[in-house]
Design goal:
Radius of gyration: 15 Å
Largest sheet: 6 strands, antiparallel
Number of helices: 1
Shape: globular
Order of helices and strands: EEEEEEEEHEE
Helix content: under 10%
Structural class: mainly beta
């Protein structure tokens, strides 16, 4: 996604038994520090997972996570002490790690704050500028 894109959010994906939240999913949720704002991030850790970051390399349950979705120019070398993801909560990271506000800064996302999944986008990168 690029700046100025508009996204469509599928709000049914995680409701009515249509799908579970899984590691690797992109999700839309109410920002924990300001529930008036929505954020889009990638699920890295699900309840019960042990997540840690060593100089930018993410480990889930002590296995290095292959993250080909993170462009090289947006990787960082930040470390984060390992934590177990609590029941009913998720660890999320942005794909643009060098400039992302995510679980490394403000903690886990509660399940009831997750309300959808981005399903498509339109904008300057695809269909030209919007008014």
């Amino acid at each position: 996604m690029t700046d100025q894109e508009r996204i469509f959010i599928n709000k049914f994906t995680y409701h009515f038994g249509l799908g579970d939240i899984e590691r690797g999913d992109m999700v839309v949720f109410w920002f924990p520090l300001d529930p008036q704002k929505s954020y889009i991030k990638r699920i890295i850790g699900v309840p019960g997972d042990m997540v840690r970051i060593d100089a930018g390399q993410v480990y889930v349950n002590e296995h290095p996570l292959a993250e080909d979705y993170v462009p090289d120019e947006y990787r960082d070398r930040i470390s984060w002490e390992g934590h177990r993801v609590p029941s009913g909560e998720y660890f999320v990271l942005g794909d643009h790690r060098s400039s992302s506000s995510d679980s490394r800064t403000w903690g886990f996302v509660k399940r009831d704050a997750i309300y959808g999944k981005p399903s498509s986008s339109i904008g300057p990168g695809k269909n030209g500028p919007h008014p």
